[in-house]
Amino acid sequence: MLDLLPQLLVSGLLIGGIYGLLSIGLTLIFGVLRIVNFAQGEFIMLAMFGAFWLHALFAIDPFVSIFIVTPLVFGLGLLAERIVIKPILHAPHAMQIFATFGLSVVMQNIALTFWGPDYRSVQTSYSSQSFIVGNVAISATSLYGFIVAVLMAGMLIAFLQFSRDGKALRAMVQNRYAASLMGVNTDRLNRLAFGAGVASAAVAGCILTPIYYTFPTVGVDLIITAFVVVVLGGLGSVAGAMAGGLIIGITQTLTGFYISVELKDVIALVLFILILLIRPQGLFGRAGMEEVGTK
Amino acid sequence: MKRFIFAAFALAGSIFAAEAQETWRIGALYPLTGSLALLGNENINGARIAVDILNERGGIAGRKIELVQGDASTPDKAQSEAERLASLENLQIITGTYSSGLSYAASQVVERRGGLYWETGGIADGLTKRGFSGYFRIVFTATSNGQLAANLAATIIAPRLGKKPADLTVLIVHEDSDYGTSVASAAEAKAKEFGFKIAGRLPYKASTTDLAPLVLRMRGSGADIVIASSYANDALLIQRQMKQLGVNVGSFIGTGGIYGLPSFAEGLGSAVNGIFDTEGSAAINPASLSAEARTLLAEFRKRFEETQGKPPSYVGTQGFVGTYILLDRVLRTAGSADPSKLKAAALALDIPAGGTPLGWGVKFAGPGSEMQGQNERAFPVAQQWQNGKLVVVTPENVKTADPVLVPLPTWDKR
After folding, report:
1. Is the backbone peptide bond immediately before A251 cis, with ω within 30 degrees of 0?
2. B124 with B17, same domain?
3. Domain identity same for B122 and B200
């Protein structure tokens, strides 16, 4: 049983990278706007449909589609921010939850109306390929996805660290009110953060297309893990989301193999609760993050 | 003026009442949105064709039939929609529901109100173990499906692997809802009876995003034959991750659901060939059908392709057959929507095997039976993907092709 350990660690790491990618958009949106975007999974779903149709109609590889789908979803994100998010920015939490949850239901049903409930899949030459290193098989799609996830997280962190807008965003993450007093255009940055947040969901959607089926409610399955990852990593922290994703991925894979496949989510959640007992703010988060600067 | 308005209302009311009298209104409860929408819609599309065919032939006792739709996307909604159809719409006959979980919830409401619940798709055994007098299920049970999977392993696969069951290891994996669990336990019990070595029964969540641990345990167990009950994404993940991790088995049996759908074949390409699927089939050997059932099946296929632009799956056909029997045989015999007459007509049904387009006969287990309301003449068949198409390989009297690709070639050759 132990001889499979390297394989399990590699598989866990790869799926963990994808969890991380699913989560960074969510954490960015929360960090800046202090809104939990329940429609994040549906942006992933839309991107998956985008990549699916580009492949079906024009034979464009899903990894190439990233460059077409992401700007489109970014634009859609700006629109959604204007119509749904902006009016509820200062509303009570319950109202924010209903609004983004409502957005998710609307998006699911638009997809259902336009494309029907069918399960669609993209079959690429590398869909089920893998590279063998020693006695470890590395799935091609997961490896490419992992590389994209790390690149994406790296770019986002660099953007937040070094660019002017990035610094302003970080200031907003720390304290939105103070940032606006310092001359930060919070309206524009809210839009930018929401657009960038759903755009990173779009990247995740494209790389998931060759792995999963695409259907209107696929986002629901994907996003639950992402919520856990975001809280574990610390709300608003991109690096935390990646670290959280890797921890959950590896835990699930190990416990799924050595203990029970059925209980792998449960055990990952128990670990999640234990970590939160010791560090309630998450791995990379700051205490009281969800309240700071919202008033 | 006031009098005129009253008169208008009275007139409208009488037209409405007259119209209501002239049609048979049948509740059709399926998941039309949400995660089960694909197969729910497929089911109701089949049911609609049954209604169209019968209406074009003059309806039942001179009255047209109308389906009153309900959207049962979750058990909660199934229950509230059943309440609506049974009380607000005042319907005595409700058909549905595709999924067992939805059927449990909805049928309770209808049974309490004394109506007739006609199940065309939910296969969990427990549904007909509740002693409900108004619950009739035309489709086979999860147990018979699981047993068929084990049967297939013993009678078709084992000889072709050149070994006795005692020298072969069977691993059972299943999604952990009522459906997967009941099929898997039946398969496990039957496989034990045949003397197979059982490497284990591994449940998992259908909504899971990664099944590498499951597939690696498959490799660790050295299984020759895998029996799997899956929902959708999970089935594709199992196959793709088996290939990626280089896990080869002698034979793979899926028990219905996604394993029999075109999207499964699309997702796998040529690697789908050789995989078995146990469930009903819309394409059993036509020689085993009665002349009437054959014509009806051809008519249904033609209409389904015209309206949906694709051939019907088994699930669509089951919606059609179930609804057709309900209307043409039960409602016609009863001649009224009076539940007691409907129940008596259902219990009196006696259609021999081959009498419906799915090859099933119809004879319901009566009151006092442990499986009251279960159609005792429904049966699943074993199919196999060959050249991207499903063919029926057993039982002998309904099969359309011989099984091939046992043992399954290794992944690099598929």
Report:
1. no
2. yes
3. no
Q: Are residues B66 and B156 located together in one domain of the fold?
A: no
> B50-86 burial string, b = 16+ CB within 10 Å, else e?
bbebbbeeebbeeeebbbbebbbbbbebbbbbbbbbb
* Nearest CB neighbour to B220, from listed A4, A11, A262: A4
How far, CA to CA in Å, does B354 sit from each of A247, B104, B139, B292?
Answer: 56, 29, 14, 10
Residues from chain B that touch A253, judged by Cβ atoms under 8 A, are 210, 212-213
B273 and B338, same domain (yes or no): no
ipTM: 0.72
Identify which of B123, B128, B122 has the alpha carbon closest to the alpha carbon of residue B370. B128
Q: Could you report the per-residue pLDDT of B94-136, keeping only the tens digit for each?
A: 998 988 889 999 999 999 989 999 999 988 888 998 989 999 9
Where residue B19 falls among pLDDT bands split at 50, 70, 90?
Answer: very low
Among candidates B210, B217, B219 on the partner chain, residue whose Cβ is nearest the Cβ of A252: B210
**Pairwise CA distance, residues B210 & B241, whole Å:** 9
**Whether residues B149 and B136 fall in one domain:** no
Cα of A264 to nearest chain B Cα, Å: 9
Q: At residue B336, does pLDDT exceed 80? A: yes
B205 to chain A: closest CA residue: A262
Q: What pLDDT digit, counting tens, does each position of B181-218 carry? A: 889 999 999 999 999 999 988 888 887 778 888 888 88
- Alpha carbon of A151: minimum distance to chain B alpha carbons (Å): 22
Q: Hey, are the CB atoms on B233 and A221 less than 8 Å from each other? A: yes
CATH number of A2-119+135-278: 1.10.3470
Q: Do B41 and A128 touch (CB under 8 A)?
A: no
List the domain range (segments joined by +) for residue B320. 2-140+288-348
Q: How many domains does chain B have?
A: 2
Are the Cβ atoms of B216 and A257 closer than 8 angstroms?
A: yes
Domain layout of chain A by residue ranges: 2-119+135-278
Q: With bands split at pLDDT 50, 70 and 90, how would you rate the model's confidence at B2?
A: low
Chain A's closest residue to B213, CA to CA, is: A257
- Locate A162 and state its tokens: 């070094």
- Which residues in chain B are closer than 8 Å to A137, comparing Cβ atoms? 244-246
Whole-angstrom distance, CA of residue A17 vs CA of residue B10 = 68
In a domain, B366, yes or no: no
